[in-house]
Amino acid sequence: MLGENVNCIGAFRVAAIIKKIETNTDAYFILPHNERTLATYLNPNRANVTSHYTDDAEIISKLLAGYDIVCFSSMSNTFNYAAEISKKLKERCGTVFTLLGGVHARLYPNEAIGHFDAICTGEGEKPARQFIQAFREGRDFYRTKGLWFRKGGGEIVKNPSETLNSNRELNEFQSGYNLFDCLLYDNRKKKFVQFKRKDYLRLNGLQYNTMWTLGCPFACTYCSNSGFAEADKGNRMLRYPEPEAVIREIEQELAYHPYVRNVSFHDDNLTALPYDVLKGFCELYKERIHLPFAVYGIHPKTIDKEKMDLLASHGMFRSKLGIESGCEKTLRQYGRNMSIQTIRDAASISTAIQRKYRRHMIPPDFDVITDNPTETREDIITSLRLYNSFERPFTLNVFSLRKFPGTKLTAYFDENGIDCPDLPFFAVRPTMCNVLIYLIACVKIPDRLFERLLLNVKGNGEEQKEYNFLLRIAHFLFLVKRGLDCLLKLDFSRFSGRWLYVYWTIFYRWRR
Description:
By secondary structure, the protein is α/β, with parallel strands linked by helices.
């Protein structure tokens, strides 16, 4: 599994299924860098996951030689790394069978199949089970639904997609893979080492990351979900296991990792779940888990005061709302057809809930997208004015617009010759717009000063001055503000490192 963290939720489920069929199965993590270090937060431009993969690929291929099948799970930013390992592995051992799953294989199958013996073009649980059983029993596996194959002569076998997992089937897939049964590639020692508690704390901190739901009813043009929906309309339907299955999964992980202090749900749209389902979950969670939890997937069209109140009263301590832009023209480009008033109302609900439960809740996060090359000066200023007018408290998650493979926005940009800056995940361009976004995340800028600063804002297609020093200052103040918000609630979920074990021991273990 290749990535920027160890939160490979889907890959874990597939690995657990394979392990049940073939006990002689090993799981490996290859992380080009740790995205959760303090150095990365302070200097986002240092994070480059593909800067040194060529030399390591040769070493890793040597370490993986000897297996009959090597399966990869990779997103687009680590695809070249996976492809290079596969190439070196085939050169070293021509009989090894390589298979790629993950987002890139689903969105760019025609590219991916050129580097592997097989790729998974949809959800991997059912294809993995069928393929491994056939391979193990010596049966013909080239007709496995949901998989494409590249035979020795170059022939490509494109099998039809497998049906998406139903709610009932998702109940069965909730048992994950124990991280302590995995091996982790040490980028310094150039070898695989046993995954240990210190690695969990270094890479994950004190939180357990999971997803309850699959699918999204919306069609945001920048999101990979739009590509999934093009391949199978069923991806627009919200699918989910019953609350009991989710609680069992969390209990299992807490047994492995008793130092976990909160649970983070990274669903695309968790608040789209019916109220009764959320209520059943909340009652079980409060009774059996006893930990705060974060909800990171909230859409302005599905946020509901009653649902938010329910979640907050049963332990939700952090929420994240996807705003993306304050300009209606840009929102239409993103496929988010909603009024600015809808966004205002959604933001107001988030801040009102935080104020009601301020004893345990951290100010809500609002996701915003910046550096859109098609936005004019007027578009940008419209968004900035909206952000600065929001009720407090809140903070902003700032993301530079990127072209993700297989999305409608990427297709539109490519057709019109529009390019986006290729920046590390947390980095943004040093523009006055981004300086102001970070400042707005810290404090409401007085109107007179704000209007003066807006005079320096330019459209993203215009030549403009770079404010590198001011951006570093604004970003630092932003981090200090976020750090203080977390410190006041003794929340260290955004941090990582072995020192967190000392914190857990002092504040929690001795208290028992």
